[in-house]
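name: query_chain
kind: protein
chains: 1
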Amino acid sequence: MLLRQIQYFVAVVDCGSFTEAAEQCYISQSAVSQQIQALEKELGVSLLIREKRRFSLTPAGEYFYMRCKGLQKEIDDICHETSRIGQDAESVLRIGYLCC
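structure:
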């Protein structure tokens, strides 16, 4: 399972549309669809119930979506904190002087 697949799945659910999610992720609609199908195959469950031009979440899809939203927030927090720590380490000024 790739983090990118999770991001595509969350984008589809958030947007309510494969097309809008594809635009948001800067890839084709068919690529989003293929990645979600690959994700479902790897998990061994359907996450979405596809109906013509609409979809709804299965119970497994609802659970997966909620957990992935939390995971995305945690990843964002980790990246932000890592950047902050790195910037703090780079901004330390040490001054030395010779004692007479």
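note: The two ends are 64 Å apart (CA to CA).
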